[in-house]
TrEMBL record:
It comes from Micromonospora zingiberis. Keywords: Dioxygenase, Iron, Metal-binding, Oxidoreductase. Residues 13-273 form the TauD/TfdA-like domain. It holds the Pfam family TauD. It catalyses: 2-ethylhexyl sulfate + 2-oxoglutarate + O2 = 2-ethylhexanal + sulfate + succinate + CO2 + H(+); a primary linear alkyl sulfate ester + 2-oxoglutarate + O2 = an aldehyde + sulfate + succinate + CO2 + H(+). The lineage of its organism: Bacteria, Bacillati, Actinomycetota, Actinomycetes, Micromonosporales. This is Alpha-ketoglutarate-dependent sulfate ester dioxygenase.
Length: 305
């Protein structure tokens, strides 16, 4: 990969996903060539990792905005005080995202990209796993791939937390009530075509609840089978956080998982997301809303983005 007119260096850290970026200060204004180089690296490697960045909230928002128009923090969860765009990701009780998911797929236009910046990291544990859902799709046996190509799934923010013991507390229930204060259900293609690369990928994850035309039991079994290809070790990169790190991943073709193995140690990140488009399947069918609205308070409509 050749990058011109920039000192940015791309060091591949995984065979199928992930590259560490050096030679760039994200706290400084970035020129067009550098932004283009970062976007090119993102499309190729799906997840980019920047060490030892000296960013504050304003600088993180500015960097994310260089990649496209921003969403607000979240469709239902309040933003960090003082910024409409920052979601505090706090590893407190009932707030740990230890399930595989793609950010905010329960709305019509999920984010294009996610930036995560570490503020407080535990002395052990708390890594983030990121999976390449495009290589997961290519791993599918041909008969299973043909089946997946025509499927659509209902994604919802109202899903079952009960199997996880951490979600049985009063605090966790209060968090859940906020999360589902507006209920969203959106139908997305199971196989999404990436709008920039044209790559097909498995667009499922934790918010995918049921397949159109199939029973809940059939949906659960088939989604688990497809998901098992996403989380194969060769499709996954693991990032050990250090203070000051910034991680950028393409939310259109990845899933991620925050590993809950740090006990009661503090872990705090700030998230800013870049607005995306309406997913489209291999057959050209776009996503559509079943319940809720287009969440325009959260993300701009495609014609405005």
């Amino acid at each position: 990969m050749t990058l011109t007119d920039t000192r940015l260096h791309v060091h591949r850290i995984g065979g199928r996903i992930g590259a560490q970026i050096s030679g760039v200060d994200l706290a400084a204004p970035l020129d067009g060539d550098t932004i283009s180089a970062i976007n090119t690296a993102l499309l190729r490697h799906k997840a980019l990792f920047f060490r030892e960045q000296q960013l504050d909230d304003e600088a993180q928002v500015r960097f994310a905005a260089s990649l496209g128009q921003l969403t607000t923090a979240h469709p239902t969860v309040p933003a960090l005080a003082g910024s409409d765009h920052i979601l505090a990701v706090d590893g407190g009780e009932g707030a740990r995202a230890n399930n595989w998911h793609t950010d905010v797929t329960f709305v019509l236009s999920p984010p294009k990209a996610t930036t995560l910046r570490s503020l407080v990291v535990p002395e052990y544990g708390g890594d983030t796993l990121i999976a390449n859902t495009a290589t997961a799709y290519t791993d599918l046996p041909e008969p299973l791939r043909r089946l997946a190509d025509g499927l659509q799934a209902v994604h919802s923010n109202d899903y079952d937390y009960i199997p996880h013991p951490q979600f049985g507390t009063e605090e966790a229930e209060q968090r859940r009530e906020v999360f589902v204060s507006t209920r969203y259900q959106t139908v997305h293609p199971v196989v999404r075509v990436h709008p920039e690369t044209g790559e097909p990928n498995l667009f499922i994850g934790g918010f995918a609840q049921q397949l159109i035309g199939l029973s809940r039991t059939e949906s659960r079994d088939l989604l688990r089978l497809l998901q098992s290809y996403v989380t194969r070790p060769e499709n996954v990169v693991r990032w050990r956080w250090a203070p000051g790190d910034l991680v950028l991943f393409d939310n259109r073709t990845t899933q991620h998982y925050a590993v809950d193995d740090y006990g009661d140690l503090p872990r705090r990140l700030h998230r800013v997301t870049v607005a995306g488009d309406v997913p489209v399947g291999l057959d050209g069918r776009p996503s559509y809303v079943v319940e809720g609205d287009a969440a325009t308070h959260y993300t701009p409509t495609p014609q405005d983005a």
